[in-house]
Amino acid sequence: MSEVIIKVQCDHYLVKFLEAYFNSSPVRFPRNNNFRNFLEIFLDFPPLDHRESDYGRNTLTVELPFFEDKDPRSYNFLNPIRQRIFVDHIWMFFKITFRSEINKYRLTGIGRNDAIALFMDKYNIPDECWESLLKDYSRYMQNHSKKKYRKNHKHAI
C-alpha cells in the first residue's frame, strides 16, 4: 500500500459496512477487487486549487494501492461524477451482500428481525438504519414473490 489516503463522500452506514467488510480503516481493497479496479480507472491528477474535503461521519477514507500504471502520489483525485459512480457501486455491493446474508440466515430458520440484527451487528451498521433495512428486505421479498408467482402462472396464448 502507498499510505496515500483519499476521502470520498459516502453515507455513514456504507462507511461502517466497508470498514467491517474489509476489516480496515482506512479501507484497503485487496488485489483483483472491483473497487480497486474502479479506482485505477477513475483516479486522476488533482486540480491545482484542490483542497481535500472532510464530510464528517460521511467520510470514507481509502488507502490507495500502487497501481500498475498510476502512482497514487500523483493520481489521487476523484472528481464528483467519479465519486458518485464509485459510491453507487459500493451501494450495489451493500445491497447484494445484505440480501444474500439475510437469505442465508433465513434458510437456517432465523427470523427476519433477528437476521437483520445479526447483519447489523456483523457489519457495525448503526441502529438508525434498522427501519430502512427492514423496509428494503420486505420490498425485496414482495418483488421476489411476485416474480415467482408470475413465472409459475404463465398462460399460453
> Could you give the order of the helices and strands?
EHHEHHH
- Please indicate the count of domains: 1
Low-confidence stretches: none
**H/I helix tally:** 5
Strand content: 5-15%
The secondary-structure class comes to mainly alpha
Largest sheet: 2 strands, antiparallel
Which descriptor suits the 3D outline? elongated
Strand neighbour order, sheet with most strands: 1-2
* Alpha carbon gyration radius: 19 Å
Distance, first to last CA:
61 Å
Mean pLDDT: 88
Task: Kindly state the percentage of residues in helix.
Answer: 40-55%
Number of strand segments: 2
Description:
Helices cover 52% and strands 8% of the residues. With 157 residues, the protein is mainly alpha-helical. It has one domain (4-152). The chain has a two-stranded antiparallel ribbon. Helix 2 packs antiparallel against helix 3 and helix 3 crosses helix 4. The protein is elongated. The model has no long low-confidence stretch (mean pLDDT 88).
List keywords for this structure.
mainly alpha; elongated; 157 residues; 2 strands; 5 helices; single chain
Brief account:
The protein is mainly alpha-helical. Helix content is 52%, strand content 8%. The radius of gyration is 19 Å and the shape is elongated.
